[in-house]
Amino acid sequence: MVEAIDTYFLFVKSQMAKLDPTQRFGPIVASRDWPQTPPKDSTLYLLYLSSTPISPGTASVTFYQHMLQWVWLVMGDDIEPTERKQNRGDRYRVHLNMQNNLQDANYPGFCQKMAYTADRDGNLSSNGFTLPEYGGAETIFWTTPRFIPRFDAERSGLLYGVAAVEVDAWEDITLKLQQPYPQPVLTKDVRARIDAFNRS
Q1: Does domain 2-199 have CATH number 3.10.180.10?
Q2: In the chain, where do the E strands start and end?
Q3: What's the pLDDT score for residue 164?
Q4: Given a cut of 90, is residue 44 above it in pLDDT?
Q5: Which residue among 7, 70, 137, 142 is least crowded, i.e. fewest CB within 10 A of its CB?
Q6: Do residues 41 and 74 make contact, with C-beta atoms less than 8 angstroms apart?
Q7: 97-155 pLDDT per residue, tens
Q8: d(CA 38, CA 81)
Q9: What is the pLDDT of residue 37?
Q10: Dihedral of CA 181/173/67/189: which sign?
Q11: Are 152 and 158 in contact (CB under 8 A)?
């Protein structure tokens, strides 16, 4: 399942580089881990919410619906950082421009599913599920972003952006077992947390 979400995130990021090379991205994070501290102005994060099997499928193939949200904060720049006011003049235009670019970066709504690995220096390499003898290329699909208004009850001057997206993908275990398949790289810290969870 992680391949579908990684593929979608990196595809949108590459599309955004053509539309607005200055757009900053944070990582993919679990929904409960956002907002990040300290907040980063006008930075796009992809939140993972859930994965649900939709099609009965077979023992080896299941169709999954992944619920994700793009989120961001716009601080604006017309008042001092220490001030608390309801309005920051340019945040409206920055916010709508980010929405417009995010909508465009989601075009065309599908791409080939890839498996990504990173070396110790953080360099990414990819492996597509493309071998004809194992069923050819797998494709993921996603919905047009649905922008959801969110209001700040504390009137901090921050504008919250939320765009919900559904990513749909087949998960075929036979492709993973029959061709060389890159495994996720787990850091010592992540392994310790997984072990602690399994012991609880």
Answers
A1: no
A2: 24-30, 43-55, 61-74, 110-112, 114-118, 124-128, 139-142, 146-147, 159-172
A3: 96
A4: yes
A5: 137
A6: yes
A7: 999 999 999 999 999 888 777 777 767 677 666 554 545 578 899 999 999 877 665 55
A8: 13
A9: 74
A10: negative
A11: yes
